[in-house]
Amino acid sequence: MDLKLEHISVALDHQKIVKDVSLGVATGQFVGMIGPNGSGKSTLLKTVYRVLKPSGGKIFFGGENIQSMRIGASAKNMGVVGQFNNVNFDFTVMEMVLMGRTPHKKMLSTDNEQDRLIALAAIAKVGMTESINRSFLTLSGGEKQRVILARTLTQQPKFLILDEPTNHLDIKYQLQLLGTVKSLGIGILAALHDLNLAAMYCDKLYVLKDGKIVAAGMPVDVLTEDLIRDVYNIDCHVDVDLRTKCVSIVYRPLDLAMGYN
Ligand SMILES: Nc1ncnc2c1ncn2[C@@H]1O[C@H](COP(=O)(O)OP(=O)(O)OP(=O)(O)O)[C@@H](O)[C@H]1O
Question: Could you tell me the pTM of the whole model?
């Protein structure tokens, strides 16, 4: 499914946090949102998955105005992997992952064999098969994040929202998570901090600063030394592989640069 935001603004505590943002994610496209801490990325994503209401503008999901869709209908098709995975009750890994089937089930119906097979396949995909009976609360931050991804895969969503999904993951699992979601071939909107990973996996980037989009386009066009300096206030060197158009960024923090003479 595709997603379109038209002139979205969001106010929190009487303050405008997101200001007149328009963006689009086509079916099958992996779109990244980058920008400094506090620039409004999570606020915008929460508005898309309907935890927050916009103060202005429209959101179209699969061509339909999301405001006129039942919450259940949008939740069934939209998977979310967030930054924080706190739960108050102690569930096993299998129980956590099976919760991904909830949007597909009628009230009070129990999990069937097919639900279990879908959950087991997702658990295997994130490399957690040996831990299916472990308590979720006893897992490390990265293991929890992988279980949350398995839960989202079990939901079989038609669109994915990722809010800093690689927090807590070591480099192997960062690459695995982004590779796994990309291979699903569905629309993805992801807030990412790692610009090198964003460049590797995203088809398109939007750059947010102070709640506004200040640049958009393919990573190779957006991630320039000038833009990174303007938005993050840091010097860097950007290399572009002319054959693959792959971008790699090396940062030059001022305090280290002084010792380079
Ligand atoms: N409930 C709230 N009430 C008031 N201000 C809020 C609320 N939630 C977030 N903010 C503020 O809105 C701004 C944007 O926050 P948001 O979490 O969307 O930024 P972000 O770009 O996702 O940041 P980060 O990269 O640090 O995760 C911040 O200044 C934050 O303090």
Answer: 0.92
